[in-house]
Amino acid sequence: MEPTKVYLASLATFKSFYDNNMDIYSVISEFIKNTLYANPNIDSKKVKELLYDNYSFDIPLSVVRTTLRKLSKDDKVIIDNKNYILVDRDEINKFSDIENSNNKFIGLHDKIIESLTDFISGKIKNSIDINFLTNDFFKYIVNPYDESKYSKYIALYLAGNDLPDNIKELIQQIKDGEILLSGLSYQIDPNELETYRLKNNLTIYIDQELLFSSQGYNGVEYQEIFSDFLNLVKTINNLKNNNGKILLRFLPITRQDIDNFFYAAENIVNSSEAEKCIRVKSTAMFNIIKGAKNRSDILDKKVTFFNNLKKNGIVEDDNINIEILDKEENYQFNISNSDMVERFTSKGYSESDFYDYTKILNIINFLRNGNNNNSLENIRFIFLTATLGLLNLAWDKNAHERNNDVPLVTSIDFMINRFWFKTQKNIATIKPVSFDIALQAKLIVNSLINTNLSNEFEKIKEKIKREPSSYDVSFIAALKQVTERVFSNDFYFEDIDGDILERELEKIKLKDKEIENLRYENKNLKEIEESALELKRNNRELEEKLNGSILIDKDKLKRKFIFYTKFIILCFFVFLIIYCIYRFYPEANEIGGMLSILGIIISLLSLLSEKNRKKICNLFRFRD
């Protein structure tokens, strides 16, 4: 079976045993008993070797021997000429089911690799080497800051929101097991597993970014992590019977970097929006100038910053003079050489960064007097950083010669893990936020994106020098959107590499084009709307005219009806009168009678209006 798979499964098993109310010694005892069950009558060195061969557990020999003595005292094993034999071989079936547990976790591990492979396949075009990926996943669990072929994709995978809960829980269990086991890595005195105390002062030098994190300049998550670190330091310093203390300091070169940083912020705060976008290269700078209106505001923030550090016991160590390394007798502590430079720059880092970073490595190596093979508590000096390049360089074979060497430079996660382990906290109830593997991955991705953005800024500066008018309003808008998004930790995963600004500019141009299309469509809609309104107005006018015409016609008809009704009635009365005359006055047949009748008719007509007389005359074609 592949050693990497066995190790990852064993870590999950280690954590599951620890969750069953077992202390560290009890968990180690189960693995040792399982080893003795399969390999009876072996000495402590062989037990250590087999623990590594079977489970990839690199447990210090002193811890193995102490555990074996405890098992002997409890009558679980007997000692025969320095060899150890399990007393009751059947007991292994009662108390330990390591093989079955490991087999179960190996099956689940295959699902993790399958899920991870599917994720990375959607990110890269090349085929994926499963063995390479499995080893890189193992390296990431042990040290997420150690760059490898697939490390950034593993971080992206773990930081994503689409990770299935069962996969996420298993990976977290593996990571928790690694945290527990790694606590033993630099354990020389096994008695410290039960009673922890410092024998000497341990001076921890803190870099600029972590100091900014302590004040929240790098975001809430980083501030919470630093707060966990401070609380653990205070807990250890308050332990009884301590012969030393943990001292938190920063180097003079770190102080100079901070002064330069705030000075740059003073120059940026009154610059134009375009200059701000180009010159603000980090989350810390973004937050320092946020809300500041002039240089004095930045100076106030700087004073507050150092005052807050002092309140937490973090002060400058002004006893160190970096120039002491230039003396010939101290050349031996200079760890850099040409091969080391080549290895570092081949990973994409600059040569100038290499020389800046090796200054710090050389200072710590000098302070330790070159003695790195010791326990963490006796190492006396260590440098704490959040800079991936420096962390990577600290594990170069020139800087970290032996596996058991305490690194010259380490991460805050490393120190939190060790201090948490030393203070015997329960991982199920008291768990620092840095133990969350998803959060840790998110912070690593954010750091990679910041690095990518910084590289883009350098390209922009060079191009502006060559083509001062090459950047328009759209580009400045893209730059502003990118910086605000990244520095607010609200990033897109595709920001991790490639031309982040060009992608944002394309998005803005696409939006501008969509807006232009909408404006064109809106213009057409307005024209259509205006035409429709014009038609409505015309229709309304026609309707009004039609309604008026109908009203006029109705009035005319009414008047005509009344007129003809009157005329018919008049004619009827005239006819009636004539009839009566002829009927009752026969003499009316004479001409004189006819004239009398005609006079009556004319008299009746005179009763009508002139207008009606004309109508009657027109009707009978008479003229007045």
With helices defined by DSSP (H or I, 4 residues minimum), what is the helix count?
A: 24
What Rg, in angstroms, do the CA atoms define? 48 Å
Uncertain regions spanning at least 5 consecutive residues: 620-624
Report the span from N to C terminus: 135 Å
Tell me the total number of β-strands. Answer: 8
- Strand line-up in the sheet with most strands: 6-5-4-7-8
The amount of helix comes to 55-70%
Main structural class = mainly alpha
Mean pLDDT: 78
Shape: elongated
Strand percent estimate: under 5%
Main β-sheet, in a few words?
Answer: 5 strands, parallel
Please give a structural write-up.
- This protein has 624 residues and is mainly α.
- It has 24 helices and eight strands.
- It has a five-stranded parallel beta sheet, with helices on both faces. Strands 1-3-2 form a three-stranded antiparallel beta sheet.
- The longest helix is centred in the C-terminal third of the chain and has 85 residues, at 500-584.
Summarize the structure in short.
This protein has 624 residues and is mainly alpha-helical. It has helices spanning 3-19, 24-38, 44-55, 61-73, 91-95, 98-121, 130-142, 151-159, 165-182, 208-214, 220-237, 252-269, 273-279, 283-289, 295-311, 338-345, 351-367, 388-394, 412-422, 437-466, 473-487, 500-584, 591-606, 610-619; strands spanning 42-43, 77-80, 83-86, 202-206, 246-250, 314-316, 381-384, 409-410.
